[in-house]
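P.,

For your records, the input lines for the assembly:
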Amino acid sequence: MDGVIADVYAVFFKNHYADFGELLSAEDVCGKKESEAFPNCRKYVFSNGFFRQAPVMAGSEAILKKLNDKYKLFIVSAAMEFPQSLAEKQSWLNEHFPFIRWEQMVFCGSKEIINADIMIDDQFRNLDYFTGHTILFTQPHNKLAENGRHQRVESWSDIEKILLP
Amino acid sequence: MDGVIADVYAVFFKNHYADFGELLSAEDVCGKKESEAFPNCRKYVFSNGFFRQAPVMAGSEAILKKLNDKYKLFIVSAAMEFPQSLAEKQSWLNEHFPFIRWEQMVFCGSKEIINADIMIDDQFRNLDYFTGHTILFTQPHNKLAENGRHQRVESWSDIEKILLP
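Structure tokens returned:
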């Protein structure tokens, strides 16, 4: 979810501006971990409403709908670290992606227990475990890293080209 | 969780008694689906507090602790159907099984996405997908069913004998 279909950086920028009066851009935080880029990062992600207010990632709605028609789709979110996020994330999915049924949702801690053929994620800690086809969704924190064996995409349009040719 | 470490039948019996003044036992509902045994079943499982108040299954605490020391343990609960249950289930686990970290918790819809070596469950719909070692935990709803390829256990003591010989 976060960093793939949920644009959490938009919420980081908003919260950082509220705390410090500094309007950061994706360029400003490029190559930095979220915790380095935003000194109050932990306060934000444990706050009520942080995940619920995230905008939908540009282009994700239409393409995820098409993926859902062609593939057996699951939304797997490493949500367990943030207890307040569980209800918010389910509510967010129901609002923005109403075609995704509860049967297709997974909230976990570690993603190493997930068995699938393709994983789209922005975090190496999730992709590195996975033995199937791994797609690294570019986000500021991973932008300067070597993508290694993972296929890097810059946008949902790139995902469409790969998975819906 | 439900029917393996969380004794949801205890809560069903209590709610059914409150609604109908009828005190049922495990024998009374043996061989019946939960929805057949308890006419108001759906009302109960969608109620706030239903999952939070479930007693811990007899014997599960000490043995799960030992399993956690020997195995890489995950608690996988098909919780997504019941949105109100997500926070309750995490809170319940934190209270009763404090040695289980958030990294080990998975709340899903379908368990077919789960990759592991051993699954302990009371529902055929979860075990039948699973290609590893499957252990069927006896509960009233499955007690009269053929266990098929699954290894049936009657108690946590049985699990201890199999997995902690």
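Two observations worth noting. The domain at 8-163 of chain A is CATH 3.40.50.1000 (Rossmann fold). The first strand of chain A starts at residue 75 and ends at 77.

Regards
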